[in-house]
Amino acid sequence: MKREFLEGLGVSKEAIDKIMAENGNDIENARASEKAKYEAERTQAQAQVTDLQNQLAQRDTDLAALNDQLVAAQADAGKLTEAQTSLQALQSKYDKAQKDWTAKTAAQAREYAVRAAAAELKFSSGSAKRAFIHDAIADPTVKLDGEALLGYQVFLQNYQANDPGAFAKEKEPEPAPAEPAPTIVLPGKSARPRKTMSLTDMMRAKNENPNFVVDFGK
Questions:
Q1: What are the boundaries of each domain within the chain?
Q2: Which of 6, 58, 142, 172 is a plausible cystine mate for 11, CB 3.0–4.6 Å?
Q3: What residues does 148 pair with on adjacent strands?
Q4: Which CB contacts under 8 angstroms, 24+ apart, belong to 44-49?
Q5: What is the DSSP letter of 167?
Q6: pTM over 0.70
Q7: What is the mean pLDDT of residues 178-204?
Q8: Would you give the distance in Å from CA 57 to the centre of its chain?
């Protein structure tokens, strides 16, 4: 909402100030709510990672126990070799799944961190915000190290320099209205009201005095 729009509706300056202040509070509350949402999603993702790691640890324990049993059962060498081959294939499959999941959750946590940081900024439009988030996620120099988003401030400064129109400009305070110049009246003198002449009077004066200047402002 712009101040000029409210002024065009004839809203008083005091009312406009209150409306703009309330609108600013709403924007800040929405930004805080969005940031809290991303933080909650990130916490949930981290909980999922922890749960998966616990499952993988249990899987490794089970596989180790199975391998011990197979090694102990050497009575049938053919079956033992076949079982060990299957076990190795299963181990490779689980290792790849674990690496893929770790990379996926790390990328997800990084994306949440970028979105949370972007929620603290004021953009000129929704499309500008989406473009900023997309570019920040795609930039390999922006990395997540624990809770710290490394390289983000440098990315932000470069982005602001290259595309300043993507960000909302702060409203500059309006200058106070100039005080009218005081009217100085000298002692003993007073301003005489200007006499207004009709058109007939001016034409008569012109006929009587050819040098008379006709002034329609009189």
A1: 3-120, 121-171
A2: 6
A3: 145
A4: 45/105, 45/108, 45/109, 45/112, 46/105, 46/109, 48/105, 49/101, 49/102, 49/105
A5: B
A6: no
A7: 59
A8: 40
